[in-house]
Amino acid sequence: RRTQKGQKIMRSLYVKRLFLWPRFHEVVQDVLDTRPADVVELTQPMTTSMMAIQQSILDVTAFCLGELKRANRNVDLTEIKIEEALYRSFHDIIKNQLEAVWHTTGAKVRQPLEDLKFLRKLLSNLHKLDCIQFHELVESLRQGDGFQSTWLMTREADIVFTLARNRVYRSGLRSSNLMEEYMTAGEKENGKEN
Q1: CA 66 to chain CA centroid, nearest Å
Q2: CB 53 within 8 A of CB 164
Q3: What does the record give under GO molecular function (predicted)?
Q4: I want to staple 112 with a disulfide (CB 3.0 to 4.6 A). Which of 68, 98, 138, 145 is the partner?
Q5: CA 1 from centroid of its chain's CA atoms
Q6: Pair (22, 86) in one structural domain
Q7: pLDDT tens for residues 27-58?
């Protein structure tokens, strides 16, 4: 398979012979050291609606983590933080801890674990997909067959659905009103907690 890629490139460049030299070879190293590569890193800043969606997804992740902690008495999850739930290995760690009793765990344990896995994917896709593809992914949640999850009924989930739709169908002016309402409501809630 690897040789096919090389052959394809050779054909497109009209090259008949290819010489492959390892980087650690002295001649190759001298050539590479004469002019170091210029690395230019470009990043696109997140829009305000993307930041609001990201915060809502993080809030829903915290909700699901709380559900998992309440539903599971077999494993000590008190020291697990939301930051750990965002890593891919989190699902495997929890599943390994529950391996001995996995066959006896019910939907109240398995569903939040699957929700956390999906929310991590949703958070990742917020940055990878364009607004239309992200909206389609979010809308597929609502139309999913048999997808019974409690986080879909939360206010934060509604914000994710609304802002994803507004990113596609509405101008920035109209959707900014919802974001302002969300931000001020979040500030009021944080003020109540303090």
Answers
A1: 19
A2: yes
A3: damaged DNA binding; single-stranded DNA binding; single-stranded DNA endodeoxyribonuclease activity
A4: 68
A5: 31
A6: no
A7: 888 888 888 888 898 888 888 999 999 999 99
- Same domain for 11 and 100, yes or no, is no
- Quote the DSSP letter at residue 140: H
Q: pLDDT tens across 114-162, in order?
A: 888 888 889 989 989 999 999 999 988 877 655 578 888 889 999 999 9
Predicted TM-score (pTM) of the model is 0.66
Phi-psi label, residue 155: left if phi above 0, alpha if psi -120 to 50, beta otherwise: alpha
The residue behind tokens 């309402």 is: 181
Q: Rounded to the nearest 10 degrees, what angle do helices 172-193 and 155-169 cross at?
A: 160
Q: Return the HEC string of 98-126.
A: CHHHHHHCCHHHHHHHHHHHHHHHHHHHH
Pick from 163, 165, 75: nearest CA to 112: 75
Q: 5: how many CB neighbours lie within 10 A of its CB? A: 9
Range of the domain at 8: 2-34
Q: Is 60 found in the same domain as 29?
A: no
